[in-house]
Write a structure and sequence with these properties.
By secondary structure, the protein is mainly alpha-helical. Helices cover about 65% and strands about 0% of the residues. The two termini are about 35 Å apart.
Length: about 260
């Protein structure tokens, strides 16, 4: 997967249109003139991997070679302009046929900012929280962002719950220094924390239990399929509890 600025497609179209309309007297060289536009079209065809059209563009490459041999101040003759227009019209038919087989997928708006979901999930957290997360949690929250953006909600839920549990383990270990339970399981960890002399805030523990019972357990087993709205709700719930854990005095004392 890669991000592609739509400007590149626009430049291909602009260059193509220029060459189709190029008339007698158009300068061959110079910024924005014939040779530059031929180069733009050929470069964009290669960039977009339009291999069929590129193979069909041999005559356009030949025209470019012939025009590049002309004097610095050369301008299109009537014959050159007519030939260039014909070459572009013939090539356009190939481009249209090949383009029908290439599909571009557009990310649609979500309630969560799509620009942040696409690799900037850290900005969905309170300031300075994301960088303090364990590596696995950072990875999973980033992957969850991509999954929500590309509308794979059940996959997003798996990553969100893995990330939250990973943070909970670090939070538990920051508070419980001795005689820790083994293995570090979500339910037993919150039970131990609740029984501490100075337990974490009740609201945090309730939210952790809600996520475990309502989301984590049904997701762990093949009992739950998410829609995109549920995945975004879960994202917000997980971000909330993670913010609370990481910004707590216990976490800061262990850092």
């Amino acid at each position: 997967m890669k991000g592609e600025a739509i400007a590149s497609y626009i430049f291909l179209g602009l260059g193509w249109r220029y060459l189709q309309d190029a008339a007698t007297g158009y300068p061959v060289r110079g910024e924005g003139f014939v040779l530059e536009n031929i180069d733009t079209v050929l470069a964009r065809l290669n960039e977009f991997d339009l291999q069929v059209t590129l193979r069909a563009a041999t005559e356009l490459a030949t025209v470019r070679q012939e025009l590049s041999a002309l004097p610095q101040d050369a301008r299109l003759t009537p014959e050159q302009a007519k030939r260039l227009a014909r070459v572009m019209l013939d090539l356009q038919r190939t481009l249209q046929a090949e383009a029908l087989g290439n599909v571009a997928y557009v990310v649609t708006d979500k309630r969560l900012d799509v620009r942040k979901l696409l690799g900037r999930s850290s900005e969905l957290f309170a300031p300075e929280v994301f960088r303090q997360l364990p590596p696995v949690a950072r990875y999973d929250f980033t992957e969850a962002g991509f999954c929500v953006a590309f509308e794979r909600p059940t996959a997003a839920a798996f990553h969100l719950l893995r990330a939250t549990e990973d943070v909970l383990r670090s939070y538990y270990c920051a508070i419980v220094r001795r005689d820790r339970i083994d293995p570090l399981l979500w339910g037993p960890m919150t039970e131990v924390l609740a029984k501490r002399r100075n337990p974490p805030p009740a609201e945090l523990l309730r939210n952790l239990d809600n996520i475990r019972l309502s989301f984590r357990n049904p997701t762990q087993h093949p009992d739950k399929i998410y829609d995109i709205q549920e995945a975004q709700d879960l994202f917000s719930l997980c971000v909330d509890v993670v913010n609370r854990m990481v910004r707590s005095a216990a976490w800061k004392g262990a850092a």
